[in-house]
Design brief:
Elements lengths: L8 E5 L4 H11 L3 E7 L18 E5 L4 H12 L3 E4 L5 H5 L3 H7 L4 E6 L14 H7 L2 H4 L12 H26 L3 E6 H8 L1 H8 L20 E4 L5 E4 L4 H11 L15 H12 L4 H8 L6 E3 L10 H6 L2 E4 L2 E4 L23 H7 L4 H9 L4
Parallel strand pairs: 1-2, 1-4, 2-3, 4-5, 5-6
Antiparallel strand pairs: 7-8, 8-9, 10-11
Helix pairs in contact: 1-7, 5-7, 5-8, 7-8
């Protein structure tokens, strides 16, 4: 494996959403991640190519079997980190809780991914991304004036969940190098989504943000930070916030009305939005992109999921890559010396079981005994 985390060994107790996203990030960066799948697999959606499972090998076992749990504990004994995403208490009931694992492997970083966290009055509740971001003010701030709209499941599951846990695990691994001790990383999507709102809460506390959706600079309220439909039905994104970019954009469009050039005057926002809407509807999206090309007017096309991988900038940076005939986001960020690579496609559940056990020190007789007992 290539990448800055090459040499680290991670056990993933397979789940859905943010947990696999976390381990995808760790695997993308070169960590050896062994995915512990259920017998028969975990895929609830029937995905043909699960990008969140890329970069690691799979061992499928029956964790309700004591022999399987003992086998997994032997793997955990050799790991640097473990990632699990069950409700609080599930891993303990399986016999794989952090107290036991850390007693056997004191340097282990034990990563826990939940929506509500390991503690608190809602810790035991079921939920999904939309529920977690609802509790932290995120959902209320996003959408049209009439109703909040969930921003896909990017803020809770992936940004405030999986990415937060990946960051926490790497922090704990760094600390363990000096202390010689592992620890539990409690990553909650409520905590993470709240953290992502730090700037918005700062604006709110300073009097620059209100609770009225579409009444602020970053929520679609400000006419020069929003999207507009063009003549071909496609959309253009505008973002000339700073005074110099704001002036350049309006100059290029020939809008010289001094009353429309005052970004702080919210009373003029509806008139400016109407003016821009009529003007930008006179040409196609790509014509406007050509018009603004090479300038600092902060204009970009709103690309769909088919268009984005083909854009020249994304192609130049290889933001998307093709592996196994599938276009997918490339590992990020970039490194000058330890560049990661996508070498292992998403596995079938249990595809590498015997090889994993062999590589991690199980002998042939032990592997055959596990297979004969139905553990594998």
């Amino acid at each position: 494996m290539a990448g800055p985390l090459a040499g680290y060994k991670v056990i993933e107790i397979a789940g859905i959403g943010p947990g696999p996203f976390c381990t995808m990030m760790l695997a993308d960066m070169g960590a050896e991640v062994v995915r512990i799948d259920r017998l028969g697999g975990n895929d609830l959606l029937g995905l043909k190519h699960d990008m969140l499972a890329r970069g690691r090998r799979s061992l499928a076992v029956d964790l309700k079997n004591v022999q399987a749990v003992q086998a997994v504990l032997r793997l955990i004994d050799q790991a640097d980190a473990l990632v699990e995403g069950f409700r609080p208490g599930v891993m303990e009931r399986l016999g794989l809780g952090p107290e036991l694992c850390l007693s056997r492997n004191p340097k282990l970083v034990y990563g826990r991914m939940t929506g509500w966290g390991q503690t608190g009055p809602w810790a035991e509740r079921a939920g999904h991304d939309i529920d977690y971001i609802a509790l932290t003010g995120v959902l209320h701030a996003i959408g049209g004036a009439e109703a909040p709209i969930p921003p896909l499941n990017l803020v809770g599951d992936f940004g405030g969940g999986g990415m937060l846990l990946a960051f926490g695990i790497v922090c704990a691994l760094l600390e363990a190098q000096t202390s010689g001790k592992g620890q539990v990383v409690d990553a909650a999507m409520t905590d993470g989504s709240a953290l992502l709102m730090a700037m918005i809460y700062s604006l709110k506390n300073s009097g620059f943000w209100t609770n009225d959706r579409c009444g602020n600079f970053f929520d679609g309220g400000y006419p020069l930070y929003g999207t507009y439909r063009c003549a071909d039905g496609k959309w253009l994104a505008l973002g000339p916030l700073e005074p110099q970019f704001h002036a350049l954009f309006l100059d290029m469009l020939g809008i010289d009305d001094p009353e429309l050039r005052k970004p702080a005057d919210r009373s003029r926002w509806p008139a400016l939005r109407e003016r821009l809407g009529k003007l930008l509807a006179t040409k196609s999206r790509d014509d406007w992109c050509a018009f603004f090309e090479g300038t600092d007017a902060c204009v970009a096309p709103v690309l769909d999921l088919d268009e984005a991988p083909a854009h020249p900038h994304n192609q130049a940076r290889r933001t998307f890559v093709e592996r196994d005939s599938v276009i997918q986001p490339a590992p990020a960020p970039r490194f000058s010396r330890t560049e990661p690579a996508l070498d292992v496609p998403p596995p079938r559940p249990g595809e590498h079981g015997r090889q994993i056990l062999t590589d991690w020190g199980f002998n042939t007789n032990e592997i055959e005994a596990l297979a004969a007992s139905g553990v594998l």
